[in-house]
Write a structure and sequence with these properties.
With 440 residues, the protein is of the alpha+beta class. It is 30% helix and 24% strand. An eight-stranded antiparallel beta sheet has the order 16-12-14-13-19-20-18-21. Strands 6, 7, 8, 9, 10 and 11 form a six-stranded antiparallel beta sheet that branches. Strand 1 and strand 2 form a beta hairpin. Helix 10 packs antiparallel against helix 11. The longest helix is centred in the middle third of the chain and has 17 residues. It is globular and about 60 Å long. The chain starts with a strand and ends with a helix. The chain binds flavin-adenine dinucleotide (FAD). The site of flavin-adenine dinucleotide has 32 residues, from strand 4, helix 3 and strand 11.
Length: 440
C-alpha cells in the first residue's frame, strides 16, 4: 500500500502487515528490514519499511494497574488517548505527553517524546519502568534501568531501530482534577519570550507560540503559556462536584485538502495577528480543560489536510542554551525573510538529555509546519544550515526530508548508535525508510 506519516510526505509503496499474535509477529521479524509502526503520527518515514512494516494495532490491551504506585502495564499498541480515557476519571494522568494523544506507547518510547514540561520533568523514558522487546534473534528481552541496560537506553529515543517493543510498564501521575490553570504572558519578541521562560522555570508546563512573520524589534513576538494541574478544591464551584470530568467536546472535521490560496502569507499574517491579539486580551490566569490545553489540534480531525494535497513537513530543531538566542533570531529572520510562513510556531525550553539517542538537550526547541513545495523545501535546507552553525540537532520523529550529510554533521551520537546496532545484529533485522535515507 501507499504509506506516509502524519505529514503525508513522502508517500512510499510499502508492505504492511498487522500481526494478531506473537507468532505472526516473530515470523515477520525473521524476514528482516522490519520496522514497527504505532499510530503513524511521526511526520515522515520513520515508521515505514518498504518491505516489512509491522503495524502494532492488534497489540492494544492494557494488562495491569497498580493504584499504589500508578504503574500501568500495557501492550505497545495501546493509544495514549485510551490510557487517559481509562485513568483520568480515576485521578491519573501521563507524566509526559506530546501535543497529540493519538500516539501509541511504543511510539512514545521509541521517540522518547517530550511535552511542555521537559525543563522540569524530562521526557517520557523517565517514566518507563521496563519494556519487553523482540531482538534480532527473535527472543524477547526484558529491559529496564537494571536489566539489559544498554538496550534499554538505546531503545528509548532509538526510533524503532533496536527491535519491536511488545509491552511496557509506565508510571502515571496522580491528579485531583482534569483542569489546568493557564497563565498567558505576552512577549514583545523572541528575546523577551526567552527571558520570561527563564524566569518561570518552576512552572510545570511552559510553551511559547511565536509569530514567525514579524521582523525588526518585533522579531518572534510571542505568547508564553504556563500551566499547572488545578487542585480539585481550588476549582470554581460548577466543576468541584466532578473535578475529574470535563464537558464533552465537539470535533471539527476537515473533509478535503485545502487549496493553495488558504496558506497565502496575507492569510497567515491575519491569523497570527488575531491569535496574538486574542492571547494578549485574555492574558491572565484561567482554567482550561486537559483536552483543550494539551491537545488543541486533536479537536480538528484531519487538520493535516489544511496544508493541501502535497502534504506538510515539520522543521524541529533544538539549540543548546548558550547558542539559543542567537540561533533562534537567525532562524526566525530567515523564515520571515523567505516570504513563506507557518500558522503555529512553537518554542519550548528543554532540560538535559536523558537517554542515549533522545532528541532533547538543555536548550530551546523550535517547531513549525510548512506546506511541501520547492520554496519551503529550500527554506528548510537553509534552516538546517543555521541549526548546524549553532550546534543544534533535529527531531527524527518530525523529519521527512533532511539529507544524510546534514544529519551526520548534527549527530555525533550516530556513529555510536550504528556500532551498537551492528554489535547486536539488529542493523539487518530492523530498518526504516528514514534510517536508510539518513545512513543510520
Ligand atoms: C499533532 C502532533 C503533535 C506532536 N507533538 C509532539 C510533541 O509535543 N512532542 C513530541 O515529542 N512529539 C510530538 N509529536 C510526534 C509524536 O509524538 C511521535 O512521532 C510519536 O512517536 C508518534 O507515535 P506513534 O504511535 O504514532 O508512532 P509512529 O509514528 O507509528 O512511529 C514513530 C516511531 O516509533 C517507532 N515505534 C512505534 N511503535 C513501536 C514499537 N512497538 N516498537 C518499537 N518502535 C516503535 C517507529 O518505528 C517509529 O520510528 C507530535 C505529532 C503530531 C502529529
Amino acid at each position: 500500500m501507499n504509506l506516509s506519516g502524519w505529514g503525508r510526505y513522502p508517500v512510499i509503496d510499502a508492505q504492511v502487515t498487522a500481526p494478531r499474535n506473537l507468532d505472526a509477529l516473530l515470523n515477520r521479524v525473521k524476514l528482516g528490514s522490519a520496522i514497527a509502526r504505532g499510530n503513524g503520527r511521526a511526520y515522515g518515514d520513520s515508521a515505514i519499511s518498504p518491505t516489512n512494516t509491522i503495524h502494532m494495532k492488534h497489540f492494544n490491551r492494557m494488562l495491569a494497574f497498580d493504584a499504589t504506585t500508578g504503574q500501568l502495564v500495557a501492550e505497545a499498541g495501546v493509544l495514549l488517548a485510551d490510557v487517559i480515557d481509562a485513568f483520568l476519571p480515576r485521578g491519573w494522568f501521563p507524566f509526559v505527553t506530546p501535543g497529540t494523544k493519538c500516539v501509541t506507547l511504543g511510539g512514545m518510547i521509541a521517540a522518547d517524546v517530550h511535552g511542555k514540561n521537559h525543563h522540569k520533568d524530562g521526557s517520557f523514558g523517565r517514566y518507563v519502568d521496563w519494556f519487553d522487546i523482540v531482538t534480532s534473534e527473535g527472543d524477547i528481552r526484558r529491559c529496564s534501568a537494571s536489566e539489559n541496560t544498554e538496550l534499554f537506553q538505546w531503545t528509548i529515543g532509538g526510533m524503532g531501530l533496536t527491535g519491536v517493543i511488545l509491552r511496557a510498564a509506565i508510571r502515571l501521575k496522580p491528579v485531583t482534577s482534569a483542569w489546568i490553570e493557564q497563565t498567558t504572558l505576552a512577549a514583545a519578541n523572541v528575546t523577551h519570550a526567552m527571558e520570561i521562560m527563564e524566569s518561570t522555570l518552576e512552572a510545570t508546563y511552559s510553551v511559547a507560540w511565536i509569530d514567525c512573520l514579524t521582523t525588526g524589534k518585533d522579531l518572534g513576538r510571542a505568547l508564553v503559556m504556563l500551566g499547572e494541574h488545578a487542585e480539585a478544591d481550588s476549582l470554581p464551584s460548577a466543576y468541584r462536584k466532578r473535578p475529574l470530568q470535563t464537558p464533552p467536546k465537539r470535533r471539527l472535521h476537515i473533509p478535503l485538502d485545502f487549496p493553495g490560496w488558504a496558506l497565502r502569507r496575507s492569510n497567515m499574517r491575519a491569523f497570527n495577528a488575531l491569535y496574538h491579539w486574542n492571547g494578549k486580551r485574555n492574558a491572565d490566569r484561567h482554567i482550561v480543560d486537559w483536552d483543550r490545553y494539551f491537545y488543541p489540534l486533536d479537536a480538528i480531525q484531519g487538520w493535516n489536510r489544511i496544508y493541501g494535497r502535497r502534504g506538510l513537513a515539520q522543521f524541529q530543531c533544538v539549540l543548546p542554551l548558550c547558542q539559543a538566542e542567537q540561533g533562534l533570531r537567525a532562524l526566525l529572520a530567515a523564515i520571515s525573510a523567505s516570504g513563506t510562513g507557518a500558522f503555529l510556531t512553537v518554542l519550548k525550553r528543554f532540560g538535559p538529555q536523558e537517554s542515549r539517542f533522545s532528541f532533547p538537550m538543555e536548550g530551546y526547541t523550535l517547531a513549525l509546519d510548512f506546506p511541501v513545495n520547492a520554496q519551503t523545501l529550500a527554506l528548510m535546507n537553509r534552516l538546517d544550515r543555521i541549526t548546524l552553525q549553532h550546534d543544534g540537532r533535529f527531531y527524527l520523529a518530525k523529519d521527512s526530508r533532511m539529507s544524510r550529510d546534514v544529519f551526520l554533521q548534527s549527530e555525533q551520537r550516530a556513529d555510536d548508535y550504528a556500532k551498537y546496532r551492528q554489535k547486536e545484529g539488529v542493523s539487518v533485522t530492523y530498518g526504516s525508510a528514514q534510517s536508510k535515507r539518513l545512513g543510520l
